[in-house]
């Protein structure tokens, strides 16, 4: 069976959900995740009850996304319950139908685009960069009354009301985060995981002047800043704790020298410095254009590569090539080294890789057996014809 892979670009508001990724052992409440909502609706529209999705990034509860990605496989040529054969979908129509269902059930998720990608593409392991934006509103010195802040904007910004807030130090602190630093103190600890992966990261931080739709009508009660943070991979709550430290430096509760020590791994983690989740947005996930490029003339080649000899019949099969590619990427991926349960994840794929090798050896042995039987049969037939001719 041939599986074609599709990449879904989507956006969401994170407040109603328990995060982006499906959570395994959290009971019925775990169904309320962004990935699970999209997966259920894709299953319904495509009539594929066993369809599974893989996400390109993970965000915490309350974090929003302007553009995130997931991919899924569609087994073309299989038979549905109504007897119809699965055909390549109209991607524009598929996105529209999924959005109709999301809107009908009042979900805060929308599909932006769906595209076909090569079967070897993986939206998580082949991501070059993840780009976040944190929206910050600094109350002006002459107007720090919380009752006078823009009500509409309070839902999507982190408000800081401090008459002594030093914007210059705030910007200097942001510049200190740029480059390669040790982020051990910015990783949320998990008692269930004893293994601690590498915490050194190369991060790009850039601050721009923000804007507010309601600021024009509220008399300019605040200064708006957009903190852009990009890296190949982030640890859990790393971005929010980085922004929290920038704010503390601006407030004067933490010095630039303290920040230098923290970036060198000195001191203890401060769980109270984490900034709010409502103002954090996953802006985009960046990929190399070549890994996304799917050409129609590749179809026949993919079909040839996906065949494995099983006894006297050929069966379409692609997990061998796919898992080999994913296994190498998993071992070399910084994000996977730091991800939750990464050792178990690598062990799982190593087991799959081993099983695939065992199956391939079995297939080769079976193939040799059938070849020998076939050769004996041909020889006996040839002898029979020779005897008749004599």
TrEMBL record:
<comment type="similarity">
    <text>Belongs to the tRNA pseudouridine synthase TruA family.</text>
</comment>
<keyword id="KW-0413">Isomerase</keyword>
<feature type="domain" description="Pseudouridine synthase I TruA alpha/beta">
    <location>
        <begin position="173"/>
        <end position="288"/>
    </location>
</feature>
<feature type="compositionally biased region" description="Polar residues">
    <location>
        <begin position="320"/>
        <end position="333"/>
    </location>
</feature>
<feature type="compositionally biased region" description="Basic and acidic residues">
    <location>
        <begin position="334"/>
        <end position="348"/>
    </location>
</feature>
<dbReference type="GO" id="GO:0003723">
    <property type="term" value="F:RNA binding"/>
</dbReference>
<dbReference type="InterPro" id="IPR020094">
    <property type="entry name" value="TruA/RsuA/RluB/E/F_N"/>
</dbReference>
<keyword id="KW-0819">tRNA processing</keyword>
<feature type="region of interest" description="Disordered">
    <location>
        <begin position="319"/>
        <end position="348"/>
    </location>
</feature>
<protein>
    <recommendedName>
        <fullName>tRNA pseudouridine synthase</fullName>
        <ecNumber>5.4.99.12</ecNumber>
    </recommendedName>
</protein>
<dbReference type="Pfam" id="PF01416">
    <property type="entry name" value="PseudoU_synth_1"/>
</dbReference>
<dbReference type="InterPro" id="IPR001406">
    <property type="entry name" value="PsdUridine_synth_TruA"/>
</dbReference>
<dbReference type="GO" id="GO:0160147">
    <property type="term" value="F:tRNA pseudouridine(38-40) synthase activity"/>
</dbReference>
<dbReference type="GO" id="GO:0031119">
    <property type="term" value="P:tRNA pseudouridine synthesis"/>
</dbReference>
<dbReference type="InterPro" id="IPR020103">
    <property type="entry name" value="PsdUridine_synth_cat_dom_sf"/>
</dbReference>
<dbReference type="InterPro" id="IPR020095">
    <property type="entry name" value="PsdUridine_synth_TruA_C"/>
</dbReference>
<dbReference type="InterPro" id="IPR020097">
    <property type="entry name" value="PsdUridine_synth_TruA_a/b_dom"/>
</dbReference>
